[in-house]
Amino acid sequence: MSLKPLEFDRRYGELDHVFSAYVGQLADDTPERPSSALTAYLRHTWHSRPWALAVAEQQLREYAEHPPGRLRLRLGEFHPLPDTGVPDAEVREWLLALAGHTRRSIEEGEVPPPSPVPDTHWEWHARFPELTQFLGGWFSQDMPDEFADHDAAIDDYAATTDRTLVARLVGELRELVALALDEPDYVVGAAELGMEVEPPEPHATSDWLTHVADRLSAFRPDYGGPDRRPN
Question: Domain coordinates of the chain in residue numbers?
Answer without folding.
Answer: 5-107, 128-218
